[in-house]
Q: What sequence folds into this?
């Protein structure tokens, strides 16, 4: 089956991997939390909980906060159906003495989605506190806080244009200061032209193995799912330090799925994101842990579940050219 070569996907012109990536984790959380810590033979009583999804991006404007409810295990989760409305949502910038330096009262803009009326940039290396009051007759209050990672920058890249599977794809980045004396990253590649004919050989082979009964719509879904690829959590100690203190990042070619323009981004995550992903991953990939040793998902929401976290990110657009043998 061939796809119309003129078919293209809309994109927002910026690497916005993290919300999409974490949203997948949050969907899994709505079911995983019901089973974590329970024996297989144990009766499970479902208790509905509120789910928070919010991220702060260092140096970027305050972003939306989403609020919904969990669903019973085995029930399909749809955000619009579970959206929580008419909540009071506050994000507060705290000073070093835990005093409120600035308060942002978010306003509801659509079902379950709340936005700050003031688009101030998020300050790096500062603490922000979240408070949500829900008018459910129970005086429910959800709370969380995050320490935003420090900002950093890309000082060098291999080249603006690089031949696929040729020289190593490398970035040199400054290392942000960290309260833990180490930084943890997620690296992402977003294709800005994710068309069928732009698939790199490895993923072209995967596509060729797909059932021939796939519809064009299935193919579009396949390509759109591949548009953004992301790494697992990676500690900066995995990479090499340069004499000037910068970090040398070598990205595997498997992270590049499409020829053409790609946005390569490095995302330094806060403790909330790190703990959430680490423990969520163990739910589905427990490695050598026995079932009784698998920890619950570590989410930072007091009074509910979900994730209120932050990260700093830097990006660069690199054009990935076809090698001579791959030219049409």
A:
């Amino acid at each position: 089956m061939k796809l119309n070569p003129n078919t293209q996907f809309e994109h927002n012109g910026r690497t916005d991997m993290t919300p999409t990536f974490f949203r997948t984790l949050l969907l899994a959380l709505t079911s995983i939390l019901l089973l974590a810590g329970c024996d297989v033979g144990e009766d499970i009583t479902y208790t509905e909980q509120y789910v928070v999804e919010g991220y702060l991006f260092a140096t970027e404007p305050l972003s939306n906060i989403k609020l919904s409810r969990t669903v019973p295990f085995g029930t399909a989760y749809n955000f619009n159906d579970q959206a929580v409305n008419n909540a009071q949502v506050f994000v507060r910038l705290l000073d070093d003495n835990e005093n409120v330096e600035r308060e942002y009262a978010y306003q509801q803009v659509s079902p379950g989605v709340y936005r700050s009326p003031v688009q101030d940039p998020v300050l790096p290396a500062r603490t922000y506190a979240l408070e949500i009051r829900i008018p459910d007759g129970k005086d429910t209050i959800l709370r969380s806080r995050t320490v935003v990672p420090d900002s950093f920058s890309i000082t060098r890249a291999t080249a603006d244009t690089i031949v696929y599977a040729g020289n190593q794809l490398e970035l040199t980045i400054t290392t942000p200061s960290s309260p833990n004396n180490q930084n943890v990253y997620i690296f992402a590649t977003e294709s800005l032209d994710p068309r069928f004919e732009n698939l790199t050989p490895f993923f072209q082979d995967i596509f060729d193995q797909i059932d021939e009964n796939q519809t064009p719509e299935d193919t579009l879904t396949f390509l759109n799912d591949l548009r953004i690829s992301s790494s697992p959590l990676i500690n900066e100690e995995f990479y090499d330090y340069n004499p000037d203190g910068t970090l040398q990042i070598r990205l595997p070619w498997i992270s590049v799925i499409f020829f053409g323009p790609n946005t390569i981004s490095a995302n330094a995550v806060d403790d909330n994101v790190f703990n959430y992903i680490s423990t969520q991953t163990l739910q589905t990939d427990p490695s050598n842990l026995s079932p009784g040793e698998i920890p619950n998902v570590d989410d930072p929401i007091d009074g509910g579940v979900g994730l209120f976290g932050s990260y700093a990110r830097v990006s660069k657009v690199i054009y990935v050219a076809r090698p001579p043998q791959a030219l049409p």
